[in-house]
Amino acid sequence: MSAKDIAEHPMEEPLAQLERELITAYVTGAGETLDDLHTRADARAKQVLTDATLYAAARLSEVESRLHYLRSLRGEF
């Protein structure tokens, strides 16, 4: 992998893309957009972002737990 490839595609956590999608879905469901929330400093924007982050963390925990369970069933520890 060249330096250009690394700059264009930096390493990230395995579930980072899923986390971003979960946050975006939550924010959209709340009738907002991420770009709009990031430019605002009001209490509602902060609360929606906080709630979206907590929602994503809970769902990621669920995904990781299921993955661990499936691996244990298969003996893949």
- Tally of alpha and pi helices: 4
Mean pLDDT: 88
Number of strands: 0
Taking the sheet with the most strands, its summary is:
none
As a whole number of angstroms, the C-alpha radius of gyration is 17 Å
Structural shape: elongated
Summarize the helix and strand pattern as letters.
HHHH
Structural class determined from secondary elements: mainly alpha
The proportion of strand residues reads under 5%
**Helix fraction bin:** over 70%
The end-to-end span amounts to 30 Å
Uncertain runs:
none
Q: How many domain modules?
A: 1
In short:
With 77 residues, the chain is an all-alpha fold. Helix content is 75%, strand content 0%. The protein has 4 helices and no strands.
Secondary structure elements and pairings:
Elements: H1 3-8, H2 16-29, H3 34-39, H4 43-74
Helix pairs in contact: 2-4
Report on this model:
The structure is a single chain. This protein has 77 residues and is mainly alpha-helical. The protein has one domain. Helix content is 75%, strand content 0%. The protein contains 4 helices and no strands. The chain has helices spanning 3-8, 16-29, 34-39, 43-74. Helix 2 (16-29) packs across helix 4. The chain is elongated and about 50 Å long. The mean pLDDT is 88.
Task: List its salient traits.
0% strand, 77 residues, mainly alpha
